[in-house]
Write a structure and sequence with these properties.
2 domains, six-stranded mixed beta sheet, 254 residues, 10 helices, Rossmann fold, 23% strand, single chain, alpha/beta
Length: 254
């Protein structure tokens, strides 16, 4: 059974097909990557899957439920989380508080209980803090537990955003260019982190320009070109596909 299934997904902007008739399936426990030249439709595809855009045609099925027109919060409730190409960090919060925000769906709710600081609310807050600390260590940010987010380096902030997404305990995590803007040493840390996330039980869908990273972590790779599906397969199959080489890998473009 596929965790995520995309059927003939299409998105038009003023008559231009940003994504056109794209279909694929992501199996549980996999790292599934989406690659393609700039303008290929990768981020548009992510926005369609996560409910930021409504498709012109086609379907998004998540955990065997039609979520095509579901808003982002509904998808989050069902177990989908994502990061963004451009950082979405709360710079008026500490690093730990940023991760705790991601625990909102799992936390105790209730206005009156919160105002009265009932014991179960306090316990929930303590559990959220402990989980946030655990996740920061998991992504390699153990040295930043007491840091203000606005004082952290860019590479650490990228991992902080991943920790916050993981705090919601997603079944599916979509990573939009997690290595963008990182130096070679920081980029080298992202591959092992993605594998740890997968091994811990979270399926990953990755959009990334760094081909060494993609080829090293992916179980399956989908190649887009001008919004259309060009190829799909293992890293070896994609690397050897002449259409992919002509359209993307052989151009040297990211």
């Amino acid at each position: 059974m596929s965790l995520l299934r995309i059927e003939s997904l299409t998105k038009e902007f003023g008559g231009v097909h940003a994504v056109e008739d794209v279909s694929f399936a992501v199996e549980p426990g996999a790292v599934f990557s989406v690659i393609g030249p700039n303008g290929a439709g990768k981020t548009t595809l992510f926005n369609l899957i996560t409910g930021l855009y409504e498709p012109t045609a086609g379907k998004v099925l998540f955990r065997d439920e039609d979520m095509t027109k579901a808003p982002p919060h509904r998808l989050a409730e069902r177990g989908m989380a994502r990061t963004f190409q451009n950082l979405q960090i709360f710079f008026n919060m500490t690093a730990l508080e940023n991760v705790m925000v991601g625990r909102t769906l799992a936390a105790e709710k209730g206005v009156f209980a919160t105002l009265l600081a009932l014991p179960r609310i306090r316990k929930s807050d303590e559990a959220a803090r402990a989980k946030a600390e655990e996740l920061m260590r998991f992504v390699g940010l153990g040295d930043y537990l007491d840091a203000d987010s606005d004082a952290m380096p860019y590479g650490a902030l990228k991992r902080l955003e991943i920790a916050r997404a993981l705090a919601a305990e997603p079944k599916l995590l979509l990573l939009d260019e997690p290595a963008a803007g990182l130096n070679p040493a920081e980029t080298a840390e992202i591959g092992p982190l993605i594998r740890r996330i997968r091994d811990a039980g979270t399926t990953v869908v990755l959009v990334e320009h760094d081909m060494k990273l993609v080829m090293g972590v992916s179980d399956r790779i989908l190649v887009l070109n001008y919004g259309q599906r060009l190829a799909e397969g293992t890293a070896a199959e994609v690397r050897a596909n002449p259409d992919v080489v002509a359209a993307y890998l052989g151009t040297g473009h990211a």
